[in-house]
């Protein structure tokens, strides 16, 4: 029985794009809930993965999603980056977005869907297929819209203790010239309330970026705490949405990238051949 899609008015542009986007190409790995979302397989009808990354602000969604995108050959689409690109532009949304972001509030569904649709259409024109979404969906309504228009294979929920999250966010820096992100925080969190001790080394910039680092305007303690509060209130129900559909994979980050990356690959049943070759060299 064929599925009938009924987009709401607010989801029309995303719906129109993703209906075109569904026929995907090039062999890769995917998964279905019936087989276990944790064990990608080769699909008899090759198609690229369609994954979502969830997690609190600052948890590292962008870092791990971008690494997986390089490994799997799919685009990394971060709605936070889309918002920041719009903020840096002179478009009509920039002033409105600046007020929302600087207060630590969530950007409206309509704005996010509009930005995401524009990004997907631009990618399609360049021959992109498949994706890892980072920062979308953040609400039940967004998840329902996405559910109406495409099949998400797997949702990875990254988790990290809140005191470490706060310290990470306050240590974030961006190179004003190349746009790459770094972190100057050297984290050594002690065992607390049953949570294990955790160490995370700083992610320092190369010499050519060191003098050009800037702090994001929303990376203040007050704003970060508000963003975490909003996330807990509005976004955590999205976890239950995907958990009930058998698509959610919980992953507790054990530390920084050196500790977490190989364990994440293992949880996803993936191999990083480049990393193995580098280690053997």
Q: Please, could you describe this protein's structure?
A:
This protein has 281 residues and is α/β, with parallel strands linked by helices. The chain has helices at 12-21, 61-72, 79-88, 94-102, 109-125, 140-149, 162-170, 207-210, 221-243, 257-267, 273-280; strands at 29-30, 41-42, 50-54, 76-78, 131-134, 154-159, 172-175, 181-183, 187-189, 198-200, 213-214, 248-252. The strands form four sheets. Strands 4-5-3-6-12 form a five-stranded parallel beta sheet, with helices on both faces. A hairpin with an 8-residue loop joins strand 9 and strand 10. Helix 1 (12-21) runs parallel beside helix 5, helix 1 packs across helix 6 (140-149) and helix 7 crosses helix 9 (221-243). The longest helix has 23 residues, at 221-243. The radius of gyration is 19 Å and the shape is globular. The relative contact order is 0.17. The model is unreliable at 1-10, 19-44 and 276-281 (pLDDT under 50).
């Amino acid at each position: 029985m064929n599925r009938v899609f009924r987009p709401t008015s607010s989801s029309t542009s995303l719906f129109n794009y993703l209906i075109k986007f569904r026929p995907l190409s090039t062999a890769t790995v995917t998964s279905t809930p019936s087989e276990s979302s944790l064990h990608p397989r080769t699909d008899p009808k090759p198609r690229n993965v369609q994954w979502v990354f969830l997690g609190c602000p600052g948890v590292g969604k962008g870092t791990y999603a971008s690494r997986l995108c390089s490994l799997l050959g799919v685009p990394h689409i971060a709605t936070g980056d889309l918002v920041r690109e719009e903020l840096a532009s002179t478009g009509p949304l920039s002033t409105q977005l600046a007020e929302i972001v600087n207060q630590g509030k969530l950007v409206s569904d309509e704005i996010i869907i509009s930005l995401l649709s524009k990004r997907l259409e631009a990618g399609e024109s360049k021959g992109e297929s498949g994706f890892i979404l980072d920062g979308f969906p953040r609400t039940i309504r967004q998840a329902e819209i996405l559910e109406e228009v495409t099949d998400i294979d797997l949702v990875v929920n990254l988790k990290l203790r809140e005191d470490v999250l706060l310290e990470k966010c306050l240590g974030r820096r961006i190179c004003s010239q190349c746009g790459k992100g770094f972190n100057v925080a050297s984290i050594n969190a002690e065992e607390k309330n049953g949570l294990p001790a955790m160490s995370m080394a700083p992610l320092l910039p190369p010499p050519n970026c060191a003098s050009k680092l800037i702090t994001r305007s929303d990376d203040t303690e007050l704003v970060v705490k508000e963003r975490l509060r909003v996330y807990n209130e509005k976004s955590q129900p999205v976890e239950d949405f995907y958990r009930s559909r058998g698509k959610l994979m919980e992953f507790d980050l054990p530390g920084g990238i050196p500790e977490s990356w190989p364990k994440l690959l293992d949880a996803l049943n993936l191999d990083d051949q480049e990393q193995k070759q580098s280690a053997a060299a």
